[in-house]
Amino acid sequence: MWAALVALSVPIVSLSVDVNGVVVLLPSLGSDLGVSAATAGAIVTVASIAYAAPLLAVGRLAGRWGPRPLLLMGVAGFWVASAICAFATSFPMMITGRALQGIASAFAMTTSLMAVDAMFDDRRRPVAIGLWGAMGGVGGAAAPIVASVIGAAFGWRWFFGINLVLLSVALVALAILIPPLPRDPSRSIPVPRLATVIAGITLVVAGIQHAAAGGWFAIGTVVPVALGIVLLGVAWLMRRPSDPVVPTAVTQLPSFRLGTTEATLSNWGSGVVMVLVPLSLQEERGLSVLATGMVFLAFSISFAAGGALSGPIVNRVGGPTALTIPTAVFVVGMLILAVAGAQGPIWLIGLGLAIAGIGNGVVYSASTTVALTGVKVTDTGEATATLGMLRVIGLALAVAVSTSLVTAFDTATDSTGLRISLLLAALITAAGLPMALRARNHSLFTSPTVD
Fold first, then answer.
1. Model pLDDT, residue 441
2. Mean pLDDT score of the chain, rounded to an integer?
3. Ramachandran class of 373: left when φ > 0, alpha when ψ lies in -120 to 50, beta otherwise
4. Does one domain contain both 353 and 400?
5. Last residue of a domain, one of 146, 178, 210
6. 249 Rama sector, left if φ>0, alpha if ψ -120 to 50, beta otherwise
7. Is residue 80 part of a domain?
8. Which residue segment(s) compose the domain that 22 sits in?
9. Within this chain, do residues 228 and 304 fall inside the same structural domain, yes or no?
10. What is the per-residue DSSP string for 327-394?
11. What is the pLDDT of residues 251-264, one digit of tens each?
C-alpha cells in the first residue's frame, strides 16, 4: 500500500509543479511562440478551466468503471499533453497541449485520491491522505523555484519535457502496484446533465478568471458568469431525485459538508498566499524569481510538514479539532504577512509564510479526510470531484478579487492592496471555524467509520 502511495504521489507532484510553475515561464514562452505576455496568460487560464469543468463527469465515470483505468488514462494523457507542450511550435499548439493537460489532471487527481481512500483502512487513511496532500501541496508551492531553475538552465521546453521521464516511471509503477478497486457497474451516466454542468462550470470559472485582468463589470466577465449560472440552473432543473449527479448519501453527510466548506474557504487563503504574495515580492520589492522562490520555501516546507502531520493529528484529536486549531494557525500566518506587506523585514515575511504553511498544510489534508469520512467507497468519485471543483472555484475567486484589490490600491512602495487581500483572506478562512467547533461533538467524528 505504501509503495502504491509513493507511485500515486509522483504524478501528483508532476502535475502540481507543472500547473503552478508555468507562470514563471510565460515571458519566454510568449516570446518564443510569438505572442504578448498578456496573451500568453491564456496558457494558465485554459489549463485551469479544462481541469475544473470535467471533474464531476470524471467522478461519475470513475464510480462506474472504477478509478484504476481512469487513473492510468489520466497519467498517460498528461504524458501526451506534456509532449505536445514541450515540442510546441505555435501558440495554438501550446494551448491545445495545456487544455489536454487540464483534462488529464482532472482524471489523475480525482482517481488518485479515490485510490488512496479505497486502499487504506480507517486508521491509516488520514495518514495516507496527509502524505498525498503534502506531496501535491509542496509541489505547487515549490513550482516557481523549480520552473525558474529549469528554465534558466535548460529552457522552458525542458520544464515540460521532464514530465515525460517522471510520468513514464509513474505509469509503469501504477500499472503494477494499483489493484482493481471497487466500482458500481449499475451507475448511470446522465450525459445531457453532465454536459450542461460541464458547460456551466467552464463559463463560470472562465468569467471569474477574466475578472482578474479585465475587471468585474467587463463583458468578458459578466456574460460568461451569467450564462454559466443559467446553465447550472438548467442542470438543476434537469435533476432526477432518484439519480442525482452527486449521491444524496454524500451531500447529506455532515462530514462532507464540513470538509468541503473548510476546503473551499481555506483555499481562498491559499490562493492569496501562493499567488499574490510571490507576485508582490517580485513587483513591489524587486526580488528575482529565484530569490522569491527561496523566500517561499518557508511556506512550501512547512506546508509539507503540516500535511505529513495531519494524519496523526486527525487520528489523535478528531477531524473537527484537526481543522479548528490549524485554521487558526493559518489565519495568524496571514495576519503576520498582512502586517509585513511586501516591503517588510524578510524575517517577518518568512515567519508569516512558515506559520501559514504549516496551518494550511494540516487544513488541506484534514479537510480532505473529513470530507470523505463516512462516504461509501463506490461514492468517492463524485465526492472527491465535488471537493476538487469547490477548491478550484475558491482559488479562482480569491485570485480574481485579490488581484483587483492589488491593482486598485498598491503602488511601487505601498502594499495596501496586498494587506487588504490578506486580511480579507484571513476573515474568509476563519469563517469556517464556528462550523468546525459545532461539529466536534457529532457522533460521526467520535465513533469509527464503517464503509
1. 65
2. 87
3. beta
4. yes
5. 178
6. alpha
7. yes
8. 1-178
9. no
10. HHHHHHHHHHHHHHTTTS-HHHHHHHHHHHHHHHHHHHHHHHHHHHTT--GGGHHHHHHHHHHHHHHH
11. 999 999 999 999 99
- Same structural domain for residues 232 and 275? no
The confidence score (pLDDT) of residue 443 equals 52
DSSP-assigned states of every residue in 202-263: HHHHHHHHHHHHH-TTSHHHHHHHHHHHHHHHHHHHT--TTS-SS-HHHHT-HHHHHHHHHH
Element (H, E) at 297: helix 289-317
**Which H/E stretch holds residue 407?**
helix 380-409
Tell me the whole-structure pTM to 2 decimals.
Answer: 0.85
Average pLDDT for residues 132-160, to the nearest whole number? 81
Q: How many domains does the chain have?
A: 3
Quote the cell numbers at residue 387. 471537493
Does 407 lie in the same domain as 281?
yes
Q: How far apart, in whole angstroms, are the C-alpha atoms of residue 208 and residue 216?
A: 8
Collapsed DSSP state (helix, strand, coil) of residue 411: strand
Contacts of 438 (CB under 8 A, 6+ apart): none
pLDDT band at 323 (very low <50, low <70, confident <90, very high): very high
pLDDT of 174 higher than 90: yes
